[in-house]
Structure formats: C-alpha cells, structure tokens
Amino acid sequence: MQLLPSFIDAAFMRDLLITSVYFALLLAIRMSVRHAILKRDSIEPEMKRRWLVTVRNVTFLLLLIGLALIWASEIETVAVSMVAVAAALVLATREMILCLLGALYRGSTNAYKLGDRIEINGLKGQVMDVDMLSTTVIEITPASVTKGSVGRVVTIPNSQLLTQSVFNESQLGRFVMHTVMLQLPRADNWQAVEAAMLQTARDEVGRYASDLVKHARDLQRQHGLGVPMLTPRIRLMFENFEFTELQVYLPVPLVERFDIEQRIIRAAAEAAHPSPMEPKPQPSL
C-alpha cells in the first residue's frame, strides 16, 4: 500500500530536510547577530537600525538563493511544464517584480539609506526602514491649508523608484541650500524688509560658519565640487504688479532649516509692520 504521493521520493525528502536545516541555520544566525547588535550600547541608535535592516535583507536574500539552489531540479521540471502558467504568474505579480527591481535600483545607485531625508512623488520624509518591497518614511512635509496632519508613517512601494525622481536632501551631508520667499504689497517698505531679512540670515549663518567652512572643504575633497555659497544672498523680483517678492538664499543645517526660515520671516514681518513705540511717561512737576 502506497502511503505517500507519487511525487514524494528520496530526492524530495532530502531537499526538504536540507531546506529545513538551512532555514533553521539562517534563523539562528540572524537572531544571534540581532542580539549582538542590540546588546552593544556603544553603537548609536541610528547605526543599530541600519545594521538590523541590513542583516534582515541579507538573510532574506540568502534564503531565496539557497532555496533556488536546493530546489533547482524541481524548479526546472515545474518550469518546463508550466510555461503558460509562468506567463500568467508574471502578469499577476507584476507589481511585486517591479518592487524587487526598484530595490535593486536603489541598492545599485545608493539613492538613499536609513536616516536620509528624501522626497518621492511630492512626499517628503525621513527614511526609517527599507526592505525588498517597500520603503518606510516618517512624513516631514510642511503642513498646508489643505493638509494639516504631518509626521505620519508612510510606506512607499519600491516600484515608484523606477518611475519617479528621488530627491535626497542628506546626500551631501548636514548642510543644504535653502530659499526663504516672501511677498509684500507694493505699498510696504521693501527696503526695510530686505535689510532685516539679510541681516537675520547673516546672523544665523554666523552661528555655524566654522562648521560650514569645514563642510565645504569636505565636499571639495570627497565629491570634487566647487566651493558652495557660504554667505546669504537676496534676490528682489518685481514680476507681479501688486507684490514685491524677496528671495533669500542661504546655507542652513538640514535639521534647523524650518526654524531658521521662521526667524527670518518674523524679522521681515516686524520690519514691514513695526510695533508702535509706547509713549514715555512724563515726569510729574
């Protein structure tokens, strides 16, 4: 009496046993490495996250390669007899295949890594996790009139990397060029606003001038770039008949750009509409 199906033979049982041992070995190695990384207090949390994600992705890749090698003969037999099914399967899993290709594209181009601030298809966020199918970011897009909720965790399929441009604000280090734009009615005193914005921008850059110079030298040495702009510049535009537009360009630390922008805008608002001076009390006779 035959107890097992006809397709289960000695070779099948051997491959099944090897697969079980291989899977258990990979799982044990991953758990050991994960425990060792988490136990190291000397490693920064950001670096720990990067290593944990790398270990997870490498383990997954080794599992796929091992399964393909172990079951190569069975896969070949099934593939030959299921060409039509394979074509249908490719169509059904098209999005997943595109996600895997997107992960390959990200890894080969080093488009971004954990902790980078990126923008994809209008969504800005800080990368908190990456895997073979998706990228997870914490949203940092500024709130607007139509969208007041920010700071959400957003999962982006890697397939978007093949069709959308990726802007990485962290690629060249902790400093970026930032533009502060302001529109004033033509009747306002734009000269006073211009002076206030430029002076505030200079004061801000003065706080981190030494770090900025060092950063510029590092860019020249590592990437062969020319000397970036190290001082604030202001541009005056009269393209609109009703408004005067001022644009301030200045280098800022990536994590402080919104705070610096607000200080410059507040200085401009105070210059445009100065608070009336309170009358001094008269001495009594």
TrEMBL record:
<dbReference type="InterPro" id="IPR023408">
    <property type="entry name" value="MscS_beta-dom_sf"/>
</dbReference>
<keyword id="KW-1133">Transmembrane helix</keyword>
<dbReference type="GO" id="GO:0008381">
    <property type="term" value="F:mechanosensitive monoatomic ion channel activity"/>
</dbReference>
<dbReference type="GO" id="GO:0016020">
    <property type="term" value="C:membrane"/>
</dbReference>
<feature type="transmembrane region" description="Helical">
    <location>
        <begin position="51"/>
        <end position="72"/>
    </location>
</feature>
<dbReference type="Pfam" id="PF00924">
    <property type="entry name" value="MS_channel_2nd"/>
</dbReference>
<feature type="transmembrane region" description="Helical">
    <location>
        <begin position="78"/>
        <end position="105"/>
    </location>
</feature>
<keyword id="KW-0812">Transmembrane</keyword>
<protein>
    <submittedName>
        <fullName>Mechanosensitive ion channel-like protein</fullName>
    </submittedName>
</protein>
<keyword id="KW-0472">Membrane</keyword>
<dbReference type="InterPro" id="IPR006685">
    <property type="entry name" value="MscS_channel_2nd"/>
</dbReference>
<feature type="transmembrane region" description="Helical">
    <location>
        <begin position="12"/>
        <end position="30"/>
    </location>
</feature>
<dbReference type="InterPro" id="IPR010920">
    <property type="entry name" value="LSM_dom_sf"/>
</dbReference>
<feature type="domain" description="Mechanosensitive ion channel MscS">
    <location>
        <begin position="108"/>
        <end position="169"/>
    </location>
</feature>
